[in-house]
From TrEMBL:
Species in which this protein is naturally found: Kribbella speibonae
UniProt keyword Hydrolase present: yes
GO MF term set: hydrolase activity
Keywords: Hydrolase
Domain AB hydrolase-1: 25-247
Protein name: Alpha/beta hydrolase
């Protein structure tokens, strides 16, 4: 579906067409830009850009600590290379959502509005660059061939649409194992970032009993902390991958937001 592919420094990116993008998509850990395709197909007319995060998809991996600020700077590098007057709407999931929040806080010239799909809430206190290791669930998936990964995904999440499973499965094999030789710095409080974001924010989350990182109570704290226009949407029956768990409800929230701000 992406008809234009390019590269900026170590970063691979994809656009729906030659026209300047109006919405940029940042994926979560172990996913890739291609994982946004099923959603983007449901929004004809939206001019989209999706970026492979460092160490994911077809992007390279600089030899430096893994930090959300680095993901922010990567997104800024791509967007600055193909700017749109007034900025773009940035949509991020999980790791990509935290990167999008950092970007909106620090580069308002690039971001006109931001959508955060179940970002990590972060934690207060000192944050250090620390060793980390590959999660066992990812190592297990990477040990399977693609048909087996797809079958595992279908078994784990039978409610996902079939078109979600192949890009999800492909992305797992694309994760650069050298990521886990580098140090990682955890996220600071999301509420602190929201206090610095002046553009409109849509926070989309699911139910914590299904794996959502954001609770209804924490969403209320986010609303209190937000410096600008803010809306939280809880999608019933969804977990961490909100758009995959309930695409219809997610699309309703996202398209209404895009219709207003893109």
């Amino acid at each position: 579906m992406f008809s234009v592919r390019g590269r900026t420094a170590h970063l691979a990116w994809y656009r729906t067409d030659e026209a300047e993008a109006e919405v940029a998509f940042l994926h979560g850990f172990s996913d890739s830009a291609q994982c946004w395709e099923p959603l983007i197909r449901e929004m004809p007319g939206v001019r989209a850009l999706a970026i492979d995060a460092r160490g994911h998809g077809e992007s390279g991996l600089p030899d430096e600590p893994i930090r959300y600020e680095a993901h922010r700077d990567d997104a800024a590098l791509v967007l600055s290379d193909q700017p749109r007057d007034g900025g773009v709407v940035v949509v991020g999931h999980s790791m990509g959502a935290m990167a999008a929040a950092h970007l909106a806080a620090s580069r308002p010239d690039l971001v006109r509005a931001v959508v955060l799909e179940d970002p990590p809430p972060g934690s207060p206190g000192d944050r250090l660059d620390e060793p980390w290791s590959e999660p066992s669930w990812l190592a297990d998936l990477r040990g399977l061939d693609l048909p087996a990964r797809i079958a595992q995904g279908r078994s784990n999440d039978p409610g996902w649409a079939d078109d979600e499973l192949e890009p999800w499965g492909v992305s797992k094999a694309q994760v650069n194992p050298r990521l886990f030789d580098l140090t990682f710095r955890d996220a600071g409080p999301l509420t602190g970032l929201l206090a610095e974001i002046t553009c409109p924010v849509l926070l989309i989350h699911g139910d914590t009993d299904r794996g959502s990182l954001i609770s209804a109570e924490y969403a209320e704290r986010c609303a209190e902390a937000a410096a600008g226009e803010f809306r939280a949407a809880q999608i019933a029956g969804a977990g961490h991958s909100v758009r995959r768990d309930n695409r219809t409800a997610y699309l309703a929230e996202l398209t209404a937001f895009l219709d207003r701000y893109r």
